[in-house]
Amino acid sequence: MEETDNRKSVCIIGAGLSGLTCGMRLARAGFHVTVVEELASPGGLLAYTRIGREYLELTPHHLRKSDKSLLALIKEMGVEDKVAWFDSTWQGRASHRKVGYFDGGFSCLISSLSQEITDHGGRICFSTTVAEISRLSSGSYRTTCVLPNSTRFVIDSTYVVFTGSCRTFINVSHGLPIEMDDRDTMMNVTYSAKISAFMVLKHENSQMFYQQMTKGADVPFDRIINHTSCFGQRGYGGSVVYLVGSCRVTDPIWIESDSDIMLKFFTAYKKLYRSIRKSDVKSWRVTKIRYAQSEQYPGIDLTNPCENLYVCSTGLARFNTADIPENRMELTVSLAGRICQMITAKEELVQNESDTLTEVTSLTRELTDVSRG
Ligand SMILES: Cc1cc2nc3c(=O)[nH]c(=O)nc-3n(C[C@H](O)[C@H](O)[C@H](O)COP(=O)(O)OP(=O)(O)OC[C@H]3O[C@@H](n4cnc5c(N)ncnc54)[C@H](O)[C@@H]3O)c2cc1C
């Protein structure tokens, strides 16, 4: 499959918050948008599943009132009336800052962004992995995609926006004219992996805190998040507890089966809360995230490593980890906004130059006709 009309076209790799935000903005601005996502559904780190009558994120997420760009996006998508603000207790202390959560979960933001892309003629290709980005002699980009049955197809576009990890970007862009130093810098952006497990418990957990850090050699997770103690039981049919641990992909736990991981997590949780029994767990799910959190950021801006190609990756946004560690979606959305502005400004410039060229050509023709008499 090959696209012939590649005017103002953009290929966006990744249907997480960054990719969908870029897709929505550029589709609205008149670009021909194609989003390619290797997973079967949208959301990336905000992916969700159905629990009872509700959608629930596979990893715990909440909003902050300081998330200005994110809240502006939520308003723009018309889902701000679905956000409610809650008091929360962190590490046993009441927080002075409220946390926000959607009625219906973050799925309402993800699906409204996806809908906006398709409503503007864009398309989202799921279960499609980008294997290579190359540049054609015309200056356009060619993105080679692979389907689960190993079939390959290409997408030709004027612009490319890559939203996966910096490492994946380097692996798929080896043929592009990117400075060796920039490649090395991107390759050196390190990520911690995370294992997130949630349990739906039959009874409301007696713990009233929202988040609690759990440090200890024998505890395989470092955070407990009592989702329902803060946001309510909604339609889950039980109370939801997340257990989140950081690890390296070289740690033995990374290759363990989901049920072995869950058993380890549950055993450690039971040591902390002795009254809990296995029969209290209605359902559970383990999610492994390879590139969960970037730990080291380049000191230079590498979001535009070659002409018309942009890397909108969390690994390139510097997070204020000391004060507001949870404001990463905010930085994700503002980076996506900045990249879309760069693309639309570039396109306007190209359009103006082409209009000027057309005017000069017709003026030259008129002058030639006049001089010929
Ligand atoms: C456990 C956890 C809790 C968090 N909680 C919060 C919170 O409470 N508040 C907050 O502000 N932030 C939070 N964050 C951070 C937040 O999730 C991220 O900032 C945001 O979701 C990043 O979105 P993204 O689109 O940039 O990246 P991603 O969501 O990672 O999306 C990238 C997408 O690209 C796809 N992709 C990658 N490579 C390819 C390829 N070769 N071909 C096709 N597709 C590809 C991936 O499948 C993925 O869907 C949390 C993160 C984690 C891990």
Name its key features.
2 domains, binds flavin-adenine dinucleotide, five-stranded parallel sheet, 31% helix, alpha+beta, elongated, Polyamine Oxidase, Chain A, domain 2, five-stranded antiparallel sheet, 373 residues, FAD/NAD(P)-binding domain, single chain
Question: Mind explaining what this structure looks like?
Answer:
The structure is a single chain. The protein is of the alpha+beta class. The chain has two domains: 9-86 and 100-190 and 295-351, FAD/NAD(P)-binding domain; 191-293, Polyamine Oxidase, Chain A, domain 2 (Alpha-Beta Complex). The chain is 31% helix and 27% strand. Strands 10-2-1-14-20 form a five-stranded parallel sheet, with helices on one face. Helix 1 runs parallel beside helix 3 (107-119), helix 1 (17-28) runs parallel beside helix 8 and helix 2 crosses helix 8 (328-372). The model is unreliable at 320-325 (pLDDT under 50). Bound molecules: flavin-adenine dinucleotide. Residues 13-19, 36-39, 44-46, 59-62, 129-130, 163-164, 168, 172, 194, 196, 244, 289, 292-293, 314, 326-330, 332 line the site of flavin-adenine dinucleotide (FAD).
In short:
This protein is α+β, with helices and mostly antiparallel strands and 373 residues long. The protein is built from eight helices and 20 strands. 31% of the residues lie in helices and 27% in strands.
